[in-house]
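User: Batch of two.

Assistant: Item 1 of 2:
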Amino acid sequence: MKVTFFQRFPNPKFLSIEKLFSILNIEMIKRGIDTKNIYEVNPNFSLLGFIKTNLFFKKNQSEINHITGAIHWSVFLLKRKNTVLTIHDAGNISELRGIKKYFFKLLWFYLPLKKLKYVTVISEKTKKELVALFPWAESKITVIPNCLTIPYQDFEKPVNSKPVILAVGYYPKKNLDRILQAIIGIDVKIIIIGLLSPERIKFLHDNKIDYINFERASEDELIQAYKDSDILCFPSLYEGFGLPILEAQEMKCCVITSNISPMKEVAGDGAILVNPNSVEEIRKAINNIISDSELKNKLLELGQQNVVKYHPEVIAEQYINYYKMILDQK
């Protein structure tokens, strides 16, 4: 079987999709799949880039064409019967207004969904978002989740002098302000991944919160942060998937996350679920893990059991079976 991955123009600031499919690519090669990677012609969307990319992609088709995400508009000259589009989330639509929203919805979602027979999404949440906007597309959409993207690590968890909490991300949807409010007065250290505003730094100092900050963590720094942490606090307000949950479970961290989709599905039984709008629930979950060693050990055990379902070899097999189904229907 020959599979071509069509990917967006490489950008060091945005590599999550590329990293995901590079890992899946390795697993597919191990299983005898002949893969190739083709990239968008221009780094920024433009009419000329649109035309060039679609023509370039047309010339590089194979048995299975797979657009891995973001550049949904590049489907138009690919064959309908053997092309897959992966959509990671549809949240951007609601954030736009006016003519920009119209063209984004048309080129990134409506026309690609109309053209193609095969669409994958990374969570039931994303599928529900798409079906709410385009009910007629439901039968085309299959859920294949993201895989774990950090390498397996065999290590001994350090015994910290006081509990260490990890918070990943600083955008409003990551809910960092409520996390910081929740730990006021609790004797913990917090590792924060993401840019801290002057207001947040002042808040940390005013409330005597012990913290470490990485504005932009490398993969090695992120892995080390997981190793050093006892708890991932991830009460996000919105996610397309929620990969930090799996990373934390793999790295032997207890997980606190939101009781909403897709986080609650991704976490399985290996997390404490909280109302992300409730500082008190977040605070209670942190205190419960700190004070109850039996609960902590149970969360770690269930987390390790859950994350196995998302190991790269498992997700790669799901895609391979999906490709086989497409070829059988040609």
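Item 2 of 2:
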Amino acid sequence: MSAFLGPIHHWLFNKVLIFEDLETVVVRKLEKEFKEDISKIYEEQKKKYGAPFEKGVNLETAIQHDNIHGWLQQRIEIAETRQAAFIAKVIDKYKEEAKAVLKEIHREHGRKMGEQAKEKESTGTAEEVYQVLNDNILDGMPCDQVNNVVENRQDYLRWDVTNCLHRRYWEAVKADVQFFYVLRGLWIGSFVKGLNKGFDYKMELKDGKIVNEIIAK
């Protein structure tokens, strides 16, 4: 990444903000479902791992200009670890009931973000759907290059992930990484449907890889 603040940094920062917007929705809806305990759990995680950005934050004033790459990497780590820890604590207390609520939240948020992106983007091919998805979902730094596109046609795109960057955050806080994959799959599937109902999304854990497919109906 460039040593000077540019479009790629704003692009990545926006993905962090989308990720934290999901977190805000998760907290709000869990509070509605389980009342005051959620606020206490969330405040504990913010204190331990760091707070999300305030609404309306400006990247140019927030970022460390002498450490752009390191600052963005740190903000990703803070956001992912805090969210994983919070979800783990909520599930530990509310079990399957919490899991059901979390699944529905991820479906709703993914659909909403897909519908919003639909208003601005062209998504007539599987590759265009993939590109818009990549603009909206947090997947490490661009230099990590974790997504390997192995097949790309107009009606089909497959990408494999051999090194999941999210796993370490979930494992660090003793959260169930398999449930992370469930939530992520629901979010992406709903995003794709909200973006273009002519495509479906499938995810499979296979031979140590995460196989992702965008398929025209």
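The longest helix spans residues 68-118.
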